[in-house]
Amino acid sequence: MRFPWLLPLLLIGTGATVGGCAIMPSSGPAGDDVVAGQQNPTSLPYALVKVTPQVERVLAVNTPRLGKMFRDTKPPKGITFGVNDILSVTIFEAAAGGLFIPAEAGVRPGNFVNIPNQPVDTDGNIMIPYAGKIRAAGKTPVQVEDEIVNALKNRAIEPQAVVSIVNQNSSLITVLGAVSKPSRFPANYNAEHILDTIARAGGTSSHGFDTWVMLERNHKRDIVPFGALLYDPADNNIWTHPNDTIYLYTEPQTFVAFGAAGSQGQFNFGAWRLSLAEAVAKAGGLNDATAEPGYVFLYRGETRDVAKQLGIDTSKFRGPIIPIIYNINFRDPAGYFLATRFQMQNKDVLYVSNATTVQAAKAMNYFSLVLSTAQDPINFAMSVYGLKAAVNGTAQAVVGGGNITTTTAPTH
């Protein structure tokens, strides 16, 4: 008996076994395909980097920090006056009868006179009687005092001047966002750090580990986690300068996990920083039944400068961000030490590849299903054929014996 439809099914089953890894359902690319590199010229190219102690050190050095963008580690110079500042000027003379103190002034606690508060005009000057316009913008109180004395020394009796600020309107610091008291206030004459400035605004209004701090100064801007100010102050809790803008906002740091991890989805850091080992644990670890420990991958975009430090040829990539896939081998016992030091970044993608044997098992199961499906009609046909043969054989045996047996119902 022939079954012409069986041959195509057998060919399909054979193809499933040979190319099973390519056609079987999967949660992502095979580890070997990731390691082999991008073969499709129309797709996005990427660089593959194996995680080593040297790679971890390069990334640690290039961790975002405010001190990298704002390199001035010294406290700001003394605050100078600016336009719209209101100044108080007091002029002293050594004896009565001078330019400001009349001889008949009577008993006084001192030979001085208070000049009405002077605003620094749009040209940067203040007006002092008998001295005329005195330059104040961009100068310290001591410098303004010296100019006043020089302008009056030939007219007043051994003049001295004291200049102080009444309303500081030019050297202000703005703190906005997730703080208890967003406000704009004068810069402190005694230099202070960013944490001190945030404290003057009432401190952060959240727990802090999911808070980001943005500093804008002289048209430059950088962002770090709030925790970096606390735990890495040398590089992040830098000096505040006049006219700085500090903005705090809350945005939980997250990463996503795919593939043969214990669970898949988006996960919050729950802390201001998270190691790769902790991220794998948050995702439920590696699935013991399906994961290939040697093919744990982390997808991230790095700047061109960091990519060069990692030894990547960046000439074939366009744009400032280089797509990089980091590979860490958890079959190597030392890989777990590296994973505890390798720091995750916000929006990282963690992917654990299936083991090759898992894909082969899927292919074999599929092939078995194909054969089973093909065998079902064969078994049915054979059953029908056997039944038909049995019926025909019984009939021939009865006729050949020449006996016809008739059965009637018994009568009572």
Radius of gyration: 42 Å
Averaging pLDDT over every residue, what do you get? Answer: 83
* Termini Cα gap: 53 Å
CATH class of the largest domain: Alpha Beta
CATH architecture title of the largest domain: Roll
Strand content: 15-25%
CATH homologous superfamily designation of the largest domain: Outer membrane lipoprotein wza domain like
Number of helices: 13
**Secondary-structure element order, N to C:** HHHEHHEEEEHEEEHEEHHEEEHEHEHEH
Which stretches of 5+ consecutive residues score pLDDT under 50?
Answer: 16-20, 404-409
Strand order of the largest sheet: 1-15-14-16-12-13
Can you give the helix content as a percent range?
A: 25-40%
Dominant shape? rod-shaped
Number of strands: 16
Overall SS class: alpha+beta
Task: Give the secondary structure arrangement, pairings included.
Elements: H1 6-18, H2 20-23, H3 31-36, E1 47-50, H4 53-61, H5 66-69, E2 86-92, E3 112-119, E4 125-128, E5 132-135, H6 141-152, E6 160-167, E7 172-177, E8 183-186, H7 194-200, E9 211-217, E10 220-225, H8 226-231, H9 233-236, E11 245-250, E12 254-259, E13 265-268, H10 276-282, E14 291-303, H11 304-309, E15 321-328, H12 334-341, E16 348-354, H13 356-400
Parallel strand pairs: 1-15, 7-11, 12-16
Antiparallel strand pairs: 2-3, 2-6, 4-5, 7-8, 9-10, 9-11, 12-13, 14-15, 14-16
